[in-house]
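The following block was generated as part of the benchmark described in Methods. Ligand: magnesium ion.
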Amino acid sequence: MIQSRFFIPTTKMVITDDVVCKSLSLMLKAGMIKQVAAGIYSYLPLANIILDKIAQITREEMNNINSYELKMPILQPQEIWEKTGRWQKYGPELMRLKDRHERGFCLQPTSEEIITLIIKDHVKSWRSLPLSLFQVQTKFRDEARPRFGLMRGREFIMKDAYSFHSNTDDLDKHYREMEKAYENIFKRCGLKTIKVNADNGAIGGSESIEFMSISEIGEDTLVYCNKCNYQANLETAVAKYDVFNKGNEKIEDLTLLDTPNMTSIADLANYFKINPHRTAKYITYIDDANDNYYLVVIPGNYDINETKLLNLVNAQTLRLLTDEEIAEQGLVKGYIGAVNFEAKNDFIIVADDVIVNLLNHTAGANELDKHYIYVNYGRDYQADFVGDIKEVHENDKCPICKNKLSFDKGIEVGQIFKLGTVYTEALHCTYLDQNQKEQFMHMGCYGIGISRILMAIMENRASDDNKSIIFPKELQPFDVHLLVVDTKKEEQLKLANDLYNSLKLNGIDVLFDDRHERIGSKFADSDLIGINIRIIVGKKANDNMVELVKRDSNEKIEINSNEIITYLKDLFK
Ligand code: ATP
Ligand code: MG
């Protein structure tokens, strides 16, 4: 490729304000992407080349486990999405539109519906299973906060695979193959990832693993134990909790006390000279889908993990009641408690599993400026649901080995799910088993963010001054960057041209910087373009000598241009 004819619009502009991460700033400087709207980008040639390489690695690893490529439409009819209930459930992230006949459509955020309908129509017998198919396709999600360039886009590239099985063992087997394939993909992309158990979220199903790249700008919190190998996303992380009862503690009589202006846990703990973990915190929620009201109680020193809460009560979305709604219910903000609880609507009571064992705790009395002390679960109130709904704290005890838990920030680059029969039941996707009996297929789905991987790689590999990068071996945009120091010197230009032609002839992918620019600025651009091997044709061109630089090891050698091909072939072997 001749650089003067290629399009890599590097810029020395200071990248400001809205650019808040290294990778995005570097991408813009390197002329890789161009923003069109929030979360929507054009991929310019350099990014396009690398994205294709990531996709190609993904394809190879999918093919290795007998998963094969197809392409499904981006534009998908509303009625198909209604069959699984996802038209409603997906919420505002689903990009919706209407055709000229006012028929509803969406732009695919994933494609479980379409793939299941394809399989339903064409696969009838156990003999045709398992089947695993994937696509590398543009996805759309109207993210609430698109940010960090391709990291959280509203339009992005995802590889999504779907597998269909006649039984759960077979699904398990393919799920493990996918796990391994994902590890290979990340390894080949030079991206270190860790695996965490994850929540299945809106997609439904039974088991899921997320692949995370550790990074300061990650939006997920990873919880892990340094001693055993416990790893989880904060959304699902659990810990071993102590119940802070005193030795030989007796159940005391429920007592009402005046607590003027004490609406926070800190106020209460201070006033009663108790540790916050001896208090209870009450929070009210509503599920707008069915107007179910919830009163949730957890230890005063913890926050609610809403994912755990949703799973426990089997709800899709919950939101906090507003101050007005609390008042409308006849409740007193800051003094809510489960004892003598009365409200306009019925409330479902949800209690954390630590609080139900905490003797003599303190709670609001549903009256202004009053609290109960010596509240005890069972005697003073009951709950409809009891379970672990706490958000784990750093340094809580590991659920397996009780060592202290640590936190890190991570970027989710891939996720695999065992879906079971959620979609196949909704869409009636069945097969006939060996006894000619109709059965639902078991399904898995497996996503990987092709464009997000590129961002994560750049975030990890940007130099400290954020002016240069070296892409990983398999993602090198070109094998070699060939530069001429002074294009006005005929002998330099001629030698460079000769080298360019012979590199090409020998199947070596070369980017030839033939531009009439100062060498300093060519080097600066080359640093941004990320090729590891640099060949510089300069002063010794008359002697056929050039300089070859391996940027990753900072090794520089002088070499006769006649020997270059053999040298490189050896190097790339
Ligand atoms: P997140 O929690 O980051 O929103 P997700 O769990 O909703 O992601 P999945 O549905 O599991 O995402 O999608 C599979 C993969 O697609 C993710 O692991 C991620 O790499 C990528 N991905 C998801 N959303 C985006 C996005 N908005 N921009 C870029 N890549 C994305
Ligand atoms: Mg995910």
